[in-house]
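Workshop exercise sheet. Pairs work together: one partner reads the sequence aloud, the other fills in the structure field after running the prediction. Swap roles for the next sheet.
Pair: D.N. / O.F.
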Amino acid sequence: MARGDAPRDSYHLVGISFFILGLGTLLPWNFFITAIPYFQARLAGAGNSTARILSTNHTGPEDAFNFNNWVTLLSQLPLLLFTLLNSFLYQCLQCSPTGQPLRAAGHHALHLQHPLPQRPGPGWDLCCPCHAPVHGHSSAGGVDAETSALGYFITPCVGILMSIVCYLSLPHLKFARYYLANKSSQAQAQELETKAELLQSDENGIPSSPQKVALTLDLDLEKEPESEPDEPQKPGKPSVFTVFQKIWLTALCLVLVFTVTLSVFPAITAMVTSSTSPGKWSQFFNPICCFLLFNIMDWLGRSLTSYFLWPDEDSRLLPLLVCLRFLFVPLFMLCHVPQRSRLPILFPQDAYFITFMLLFAVSNGYLVSLTMCLAPRQVLPHEREVAGALMTFFLALGLSCGASLSFLFKALL
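Structure field:
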């Protein structure tokens, strides 16, 4: 709840900055998985015939090296490690005024070194395909292949630089400075407001959940000492274990959402081809119906939480919805994937894959955003930052678990 004397976010600069910061985390990975046909061609020893292979076969050569799976797994393991460290060490970094800027700037700087190697070497042609066309984007854009490929891989670098600039500029914006200053006093005020709102929503003055019973006892204890007006007590240092006990179910849901998503995307979904005859549609089917459609619908699902949060933090329906997403694993595995030796193809038509991808992406975006929104509401205000750090770790854990499972599901095809 914004206070009356709070400044306004002029031109939505703070909101745009946080949007760009969100882009900077997975932007390089999204560009790499979209260019998987190129990397598969390079690994297959296509050499100078890479352009010819990509122009005739939009799925690229057979993925004998499991490049889809390895690039997903190896890109998530560092994220898992550093989010784990961040969950336990962030308080030490916050002790100094340069701790947080150093942490964020270092995070994005490491991403910046990832898309392009620093000097040419034996792996230059594999890591930076600036001298060969990237399938689909170059032919659709109407520009020469070298310019298209160079722009395609420079884009993540520009996005990460923008993320660093946005993060460093946040403390200079009046709206951000207002909420960053006096965090302890604002946390105490928000804690009392939260308790009052929760208790006012109960009928007949009877709390409807154990959490609200605890809040009632807290308010009673705060009202008792009226004789000695001591100094207001500052909230104690939040415990990671205590916060985890409050949000463990929501964190588990987040892990399961990303486990399902990364177990089939892009390892399985990138292998799905169009069942129509060769042509422009079959050439662009996977880039559009897999990668573009997923990202658009995933963004739409995340945006829905700006209008409503359902189910709420007290509902047991959330774990059920999360578990239902496991149905997408067999559905995608039974789509039109020509490179298979065990399972049959039960959904050959393109419409099946598009429908599955629509529901898959929307549910991923909505449930991820929902769990990230519900976790801070399950803890006290001064514990919310710890909850956010923990949820980021479990997000990375889900990504890593899903990337690991993708090897098994691909082997079962």
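Discussion prompt: The radius of gyration is 24 Å. What would you look at next?
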